[in-house]
Amino acid sequence: MRCPGRYCGIYQDICTACPRGLRVNLTSEICEPCVNKPVFYDWLYMGFMLLTIIFFHMDTLTRNIDDDVKGAGKWIAVTILETLLSVLLTLLLSDPYGSFSVHSCGVDSFLDWYSVFQNPAIRFTETIYCESEVVYPLYSIAFKFLGFCLILMLVIRTWYHPVSFTTRSVYAALYFIPSVALVHSVCCGLIYYSFPYLCVIGSLIFNAVIMSASLQNFDDVKDNLGKPVFMIQIVMYWVLHGYGILSIVAYNSLSYWYLFLTPIPTLFYIVTLPFSLPVAPSNTPDAPDGAV
Q1: CB count, 10 Å around CB of 271?
Q2: Number of other residues whose CB lies within 10 A of the CB of residue 192
Q3: What is the spatial distance between Cα 8 and Cα 114, in angstroms, rounded to a whole number?
Q4: Do residues 135 and 105 lie in contact, with contact meaning Cβ atoms separated by under 8 Å?
Q5: Overall pTM > 0.90
Q6: What would the pLDDT profile of 79-99 be if each residue is shown by its tens digit?
């Protein structure tokens, strides 16, 4: 029995889509259970979803951190706790259940993310629908994680008596968490291959914005080192930039020495600060020749 198409397999003597957690063996065309472990780059992709949620939360909290520095510090810790608990629950409720390991089908090509567009047509008249989660569990595990983030945020923050600025962060999360899920559902394959470069480019833009807004001369560097908002933003930038470099290194099997490039953009901005300051023109126009 032969199965047409790239993702159709034989399951219970029927040529059909492989059930979740199974993938077709291209040699035997039989749907086989996925028992492999995710490669390091797959873990980095799942970690990117974690970083995305933390950074959105941090951005919302740091906008109002000057109102209550100590209180904001507690809420940042609560935010990280919520996200880590979501990760633990996601891993525990993924196959194999009750452990922190994950079975994976792996990713062979970009088309694996969009099997819905690979359904074969028999003589251009009869279509066999073989769409399935070929990249199990990389597609579904993100939705599971985002769902736990939303539930735990509502439960923990309600119990922890939210104050004014954290209430605004909850409202923001009710928008950005579903938005992240929507983007992932459509652009998951694009994100999988491009997230390292998105991290690097986004961190460079982020670094330029916070530096230009906070630093005007060398004295500002010393003054901002004691400001919680500035230091949190710098740490966020370094984490994002380093994570992007690590992901590029892992995908291309490069040397991990490249991680030492993480602080270079910040140091470069500070060193070249005197050369990038605009010179204000004189308010007094030059007197014309012959004027007394």
Answers
A1: 9
A2: 20
A3: 14
A4: yes
A5: no
A6: 889 999 999 999 999 988 888
Can you tell me which residue has the tokens 């996200």?
A: 83
Q: Is 30 helix (H, G, I), strand (E, B) or coil?
A: strand
CA-wise closest residue to 195 among 134, 113, 115: 113
Mention every residue, 6+ apart, whose C-beta is less than 8 A from residue 226.
none
The helix/strand/coil state of 74 is helix
Q: What are phi and psi of 8, to 5 degrees?
A: -85, 140
Q: What's the Rg (C-alpha) of the chain?
A: 25
Distance CA 79, CA 88 (A): 14
Q: Which two tokens stand for residue 263?
A: 């602080």
Q: How far apart are CA 4 and CA 9, in angstroms?
A: 8
Q: Which two tokens stand for residue 284?
A: 């007094």
Question: From CA 239, how far away is CA 217, in angstroms rounded?
Answer: 25
